[in-house]
Design a protein that fits this description.
Layout (H helix, E strand, L loop, with lengths): L1 E6 L1 H4 L10 H17 L4 E6 L2 H11 L8 H27 L4 E3 L7 E3 L2 E4 L3 H8 L3 E5 L1 E5 L3 E5 L1 H12 L3 E6 L14 E3 L22 H14 L4 E6 L5 H6 L8 E4 L1
Parallel strand pairs: 1-2, 1-9, 2-6, 3-6, 4-7, 9-11, 10-12
Antiparallel strand pairs: 4-5, 7-8, 11-12
């Protein structure tokens, strides 16, 4: 079984304050991941994380998502890359300290986009790592774009690209939300490609700085993937609940959460 796990930027950073990581949360999540791998050593796992108050704040300042053209834009592009890498180093170190065999895969080193869409990204390093029971680690990063010059690629976009080749059974999106909430603030337990339209008023963008879209774009893109891969299950849930990430990785019940399926 192959599982993709995203640790959301809102979960591992304070998105209202530039470059502020939730170190205790990151360390706890690393321990939960290690525990799941100890219990299920045959689990093939790819981890990704958002950039939160590291990449998003800087990218918003420079408008990097929309494109890069001037010398100032390119300096901003480099600054966003460096900022995202700083958070990645924190996550990498926590996973390594927890004895997770983590293998960093820097998206900007190989990804190429066309007008904001990934069209190329090296797969062999990641696939080889999985074959040898390593845990590839990707993250929201900058990328060269043949139309825009440069852009931002989110973890979900990277997952969508990788999923076409690696075909995960489950994609777990752990954030600071209990799941997808309806207009009354209650968790919607299950959304399918057929029922999505009944929940459109419940889906809204993030209230904090996020240059790659909010809940609506996340749900839509993941349901589109479920449409293409019929047996895929996506779960959006809170990583703030102790034990949720470990249980989700093991296929056990979690507190809250919204399932997305075909």
């Amino acid at each position: 079984m192959t599982v993709f796990l995203k640790l959301g930027g809102s979960l591992i950073t304070d998105k209202s304050t530039a470059e502020t990581a939730h170190l205790e949360v990151i360390e706890r999540l690393a321990e939960e991941i290690a525990g799941a791998l100890d219990e299920k050593p045959d689990l093939r796992l790819v981890i990704g994380h958002g950039s939160g108050s590291f990449g998003h704040v800087t990218a918003s300042r420079y408008g990097t998502r929309e494109g890069v053209s001037s010398d100032a834009d390119w300096r901003g592009f480099a600054s966003v890359s460096a900022s995202a890498a700083r958070l990645n180093s924190i996550v990498l170190e926590a996973l390594d300290e927890a004895n997770v065999p983590v293998f960093r895969v820097q998206p900007s080193a190989s990804a190429v986009c066309r007008d904001g869409q990934i069209v190329q990204m090296a797969l062999e390093p990641l696939q080889t790592a999985l074959d040898h029971r390593l845990v590839p680690l990707v993250y929201g990063d900058v990328a060269i774009d043949s139309v825009r010059g440069g852009t931002i690629i989110s973890t979900e976009e990277i997952f969508l690209w990788l999923a076409e080749a690696i075909r995960p059974t489950r994609i777990l999106l752990a954030g600071d939300s209990e799941g997808v909430l309806d207009r009354d603030g209650k968790i919607i337990p299950h959304i399918t490609t057929e029922t999505i339209n009944t929940h459109h008023t419940a889906l809204s963008g993030s209230a904090k700085t996020d240059v790659t879209g909010g809940m609506a774009s996340k749900v839509k893109s993941m349901l589109d993937l479920c449409e293409r891969h019929k047996n895929l299950e996506v779960i959006i849930f809170s990583g703030e609940v102790v034990g949720n990430v470990q249980n989700a990785l093991l296929g056990k019940s979690i507190r809250g959460g919204t399932r997305l399926t075909k």
